[in-house]
Amino acid sequence: MRIGLFGGTFNPIHYGHLRASLEVKEEFGLDKIYLIPSAIPPHKSPRGVVDAKDRFHMIQLAISDQSDFIVSDVELDRPGPSYSIDTVHHFQKILPKDPRFYLILGTDAFYEIDTWKAYKDFFDLVPMIIMLRPGDRFSMAPKRHSYFETFLKTKISEKYSYSEDLSCFIHPEKQSIFIAYITSLDISSTHIRDLIGRGKSIRYLVPDSVADYIVTKGLYL
Description:
With 221 residues, this protein is α/β, with parallel strands linked by helices. The protein has helices at 15-27, 52-62, 74-77, 84-94, 107-110, 119-125, 136-140, 146-155, 189-197, 208-217, and strands spanning 2-8, 32-37, 69-71, 100-106, 128-132, 161-163, 168-170, 177-181. Helix 2 runs antiparallel to helix 10 (208-217).
């Protein structure tokens, strides 16, 4: 079984998250993707972040017709800041023996990984899939992922290198790092919250069920 772990604030979840998840699932042949809302994001200001239960319910609504997507409340049930390393350990314990895990990250999160709790452990425990945000594909392609390679060599290990044959960054002892080129949907939760605050429509940016929930609950006003 091949499983993706995609964590984040999801404040709120939108079509950018959903389309990226679907494309990663298809490209890497994943059987399941767990979307994991953080209860207390350790690297973000709590200002403007709605209650974790509301974000959890919005994800439930957004993926109700996608059986291969599962929303997890593991970080909601755990006290204190939501550290991703604890979440990886949790899934390693509860899921079937010897599953193939991938940690799914956006570029912004990846370039901050050296500020995470026990960040070097990730590179020993789980391969990563890094989703390039809009515009990154074209700026990076001529450089053959040189920025990623420099980051890995500087922050993690000089032994990381890009393999053209395997289409990923490899290391003789550590886990591989894959790049996923996703459709450029320039949608952000920040912009959605701004539109709501200004009384503008968010239709076609989030599923209708999520938009209805936001209105019913009076979120982001």
